[in-house]
Amino acid sequence: MAGRIVIDLFMTLDGVAQGPGGIGEDPSGGFEFSGWQAGYPSSGVGPQVQQGMQRLDALLLGRRTYDIFAGYWPNHTDGPSGEIGRLFDRVPKYVASRDADIALDWQHSSRIGGDLAAEIAELRARHDEVHVIGSVDFAHSLIAGGLFDELNLWAYPILLGPGKKVFDDGAMPSVLRLIEPPVADDAGVMLLRYARTDQVPQVDTFED
């Protein structure tokens, strides 16, 4: 049985997924709200994330997210976040980049970026569950090519307006299947889990 590619994204209610984790994380395009997720505490997200990582045996990351993770997680293998830190530290990390000369100093890291569709197929054959965390620019490429199996969205009751959205104009027209009922915590953060299907949107006209 082939492995799965799972995309995990934190987003605002209007779809912004840019720079959620810290001030200055991703100011590209003049984005002013880096750290918006960290600025809105949620009691439910942490346990949901940990539960969702139980089958993870590899990470697939964009270059910016990889650099952030490599600078943080190897130094946080103890304490409250130690379980995730140890997991990320020991599993293979695949970094999507066109630069063949990038320095990948975090252990078990390697580059992909030649033939994305073929490389994703190889990752499915090699691993049970590969998670793409953050990496919204790279996620756009996967969504545009239908190169994912599951999409987990943590939707925060925040509106930001400008910023990189989960779905840009390059998204492949498709119908997603809700895997389980939405789960919301006391802060109003909702987990939405969708599976990719081969269905495409159909058009019709409502009759009187």
UniProtKB/TrEMBL annotation:
InterPro entries for this protein: DHFR-like_dom_sf (IPR024072), RibDG_C (IPR002734)
Gene3D superfamilies assigned: Dihydrofolate Reductase, subunit A
Pfam family, one: RibD_C
Any one GO biological process: riboflavin biosynthetic process
A GO molecular-function annotation: 5-amino-6-(5-phosphoribosylamino)uracil reductase activity
Record domain Bacterial bifunctional deaminase-reductase C-terminal: where: 5-177
SUPFAM superfamilies associated with the record: Dihydrofolate reductase-like
Domain of life: Bacteria
UniProt name for this protein: Dihydrofolate reductase
Source organism: Microbacterium hydrocarbonoxydans
